[in-house]
Specification:
With about 350 residues, the protein is an alpha/beta fold. Helix 1 crosses helix 3, helix 2 crosses helix 3 and helix 5 packs across helix 6. An 8-stranded parallel beta barrel has the order 1-2-3-4-5-6-7-10, surrounded by 6 helices. The two termini are about 15 Å apart.
Length: about 350
């Protein structure tokens, strides 16, 4: 296999070929990318080959969530083809994927080996069901009891929503699935509480286990608190664990999440932990989003992940990657590119 050093040489060659600034309109960007490919297709092909080989090696991965809501791109942040080539995984935030995004997804999968997944959250489903029942109550003229009787059972609602999500994996030819389930700490629960929670836990994971058994070739991410998962089979089949650390304010907090997960003794020996961070928000009221006390989450977390520890640090899960496209420096996706380089200095 080609060495990672060769990727650096190829990247340098591509950068020289590109010549002009990346800060352009979507149309100009596409012409620029195509011109690189057309100017020296042999070098470009070698670059793509080396990049796919690199992604198959053991390295610090970057998982991103991407807002694919817009059917037609108004700027480069709405183009999948403009995402950094070295991103490993892209989670599509919108289940309805436009033809434009499907075509672009196919391009980057084939060229760069980027893999795409969808996500289903148990807690989000519970919240959506409660909102559904509340809407029935508001519409009912006969009161809460009549509305509750009219509502479909949560079990039926949950199964339908779960299947709607995983069906997209086949429909779009995706590479995997992320299941988000925070779980609860059973320590300190009474026996009655523990019995009730175990029943809820098992019902939540039942469709996940069924999906796993039928999709062994797909990659499976488990998001939440893995130490609160009671099913060893689910833990053993997860390729990566995404810790819910977006609200952390320091790398020390990230470390506590990692330590707590491993100290539980429930994770398999080869468990790989990804630490969730956010790209900074442009909304003034959300000034703490994507921020640590000492600076932005992404660069500080990337530097922290790159350092050795007594527990696993396998990479970052970067939420809302599209927000990193715009910045005052004129370079697109600077934080994501820097994070990849920091965590994998030989890349």
């Amino acid at each position: 296999m080609k060495s990672i050093f060769k990727i650096n040489i190829l990247l340098a060659g591509i950068a020289i070929l590109a010549g002009c600034s990346e800060w352009t309109t979507p149309e100009s960007i596409e012409i620029e990318k195509n011109s690189i490919e057309a100017t020296n297709p042999e070098l470009y092909a070698k670059y793509c080959d080396a990049l796919r080989e690199y992604k198959a090696t053991d390295h610090k991965v970057v998982y991103t969530t991407y807002d694919n809501t817009s059917a037609e791109a108004a700027n480069g942040s709405e183009r999948i083809t403009m995402l950094p080539d070295s991103i490993d995984f892209v989670q599509l935030m919108n289940l309805e994927v436009s033809k434009t995004h499907l075509d672009e997804m196919k391009q980057v999968k084939e060229k760069f080996g980027t893999r795409f997944v969808v996500r289903f959250s148990y807690e989000d489903c519970v919240a959506a069901y409660e909102a559904y029942v509340e809407s029935l109550q508001n519409e009912s003229e006969e009161g809460t009891e009549a509305a509750a009787a009219e509502a479909i059972p949560f079990e039926t609602y949950y199964a339908a929503e779960f299947q709607k999500t995983v069906a997209k994996i086949t429909e779009y030819g995706l590479d995997g699935f992320t299941f988000a389930f925070s779980g609860k700490n059973v320590d300190g629960m009474t026996e009655e509480q523990k019995t009730a929670y175990t029943a809820e836990h098992d019902a939540a994971l039942a469709p996940v286990k069924a999906w796993i058994s039928s999709n062994g070739s797909k990659i499976f991410f488990l998001e939440g608190n893995p130490q609160y998962i009671l099913d060893n089979d689910v833990l053993s089949t997860a390729s990566f664990f995404i810790l819910q650390t977006r609200s952390c304010r320091s790398t020390g907090e990230l470390g506590l999440y990692g330590i707590n997960a491993f100290k539980s003794g429930k994770l398999p020996e080869n468990a790989k932990l990804l630490y969730a961070v956010e790209t900074p928000s442009f909304i003034e009221e959300e000034y703490l989003v994507g921020q640590f006390v000492l600076g932005e989450q992404i660069p500080l977390a990337a530097d922290w992940v790159a350092k050795d520890a007594s527990y696993e640090k396998s990479g970052l899960a970067i939420w809302n990657v599209q927000r990193d496209y715009f910045n005052t420096g004129g370079k697109i996706y600077p934080n994501v590119r820097m994070a990849i380089k920091t965590m994998n200095p030989n890349e």
